Amino acid sequence: MKYITGFFVLIWRIWMILLAGSYVLTIGVFIVLPLAYFDRTFPYIYPFIRYWGKFVLYGTGFRIDYQKMVPLNPKEKYIFIANHTSIMDIMLMLTILKHHPIVFVGKAELLKIPIFGRIFNRICIPVDRRSAKSKAHVYPEAKKKLDQHLSIFIFPEGGVTDEKEFEIYLDPFKDGAFNIAIETQTPIAVLAIHGLNKMFPFNWFRGYPGKIHVRLLATLETNGLEVKKDKAALKSTAYELILKELEQCKN
């Protein structure tokens, strides 16, 4: 039975890839890719990027339960952060953040994907975490996007570990999101994602469609904060907010 289930899960995951690829090869090539060469067109192409996320998420059988514990100012730009448990996290955030066009800080390896890599390079900030030069490039690029009144999305854990598929697990946060937020005096919006660690883990033979629970927990102000004095406390506050929410959901 385990092997039969694994086979159908594999087919389901291939279906997800076909959905994502078909959209990129049609809408992406003819609309997003040409416009993505011009920075000022991002607000116009963002709806098409969002629809890609919704197309893949809903087409793969997922649904969303999204609750805001605090309001978001539609005219404000934010540094959005969340726990990272699945590749589907990206489609999820594109779907729920309708009024805040977001630019992801993501892995540079995605640049190698044909066609999608070109689009990714224009609408995201690629970073190679093994390269100090690449990491140093993130801040000026993020500031440039924020100056264009775009929001930034960063998964502060920096990656996904195998433990997350089976239990509540939150890796220590890296400094990047908090450095950028303080240096640019941009508020941080803290989200928690429940369920995707089991519904769509980084394992080709496990997973299932279902309802994803997302909570907007808090917005953390950075006005007047300084990196050396306040970064550690800000990072700890964000970490504890997400961890507490994940543990409460488990119980």
Q: How would you sum up this structure, described in words?
A:
The protein starts with a helix and ends with a helix. The longest helix has 34 residues, at 2-35. With 251 residues, the protein is an alpha/beta fold. α1 packs across α4 (116-123), α5 (132-147) runs parallel beside α6 and α6 (176-184) crosses α8. The protein has 8 helices and 7 strands. The model has no long low-confidence stretch (mean pLDDT 85). The chain has helices spanning 2-35, 42-59, 88-96, 116-123, 132-147, 176-184, 196-199, 227-250, and strands at 63-68, 79-82, 102-107, 124-127, 151-154, 188-194, 211-220.
Brief overview:
This protein has 251 residues and is an alpha/beta fold.
Map the helices and strands:
Elements: H1 2-35, H2 42-59, E1 63-68, E2 79-82, H3 88-96, E3 102-107, H4 116-123, E4 124-127, H5 132-147, E5 151-154, H6 176-184, E6 188-194, H7 196-199, E7 211-220, H8 227-250
Parallel strand pairs: 1-7, 2-5, 2-6, 3-4, 3-5
Antiparallel strand pairs: 6-7
Order of helices and strands: HHEEHEHEHEHEHEH
Shape from CA axes?
A: globular
Number of helices: 8
Report strand order across the widest sheet: 1-7-6-2-5-3-4
- Report Rg: 18 Å
Largest sheet: 7 strands, mixed
Q: What is the average per-residue confidence, as pLDDT, rounded to a whole number?
A: 85
What portion of the residues fall into strands of 2 or more residues? 15-25%
Low-confidence stretches: none
Q: Give the termini separation.
A: 30 Å
In terms of structural class, how would the helical and strand content be classed?
Answer: alpha/beta
**Strand element count:** 7
Share of residues in helices: 40-55%
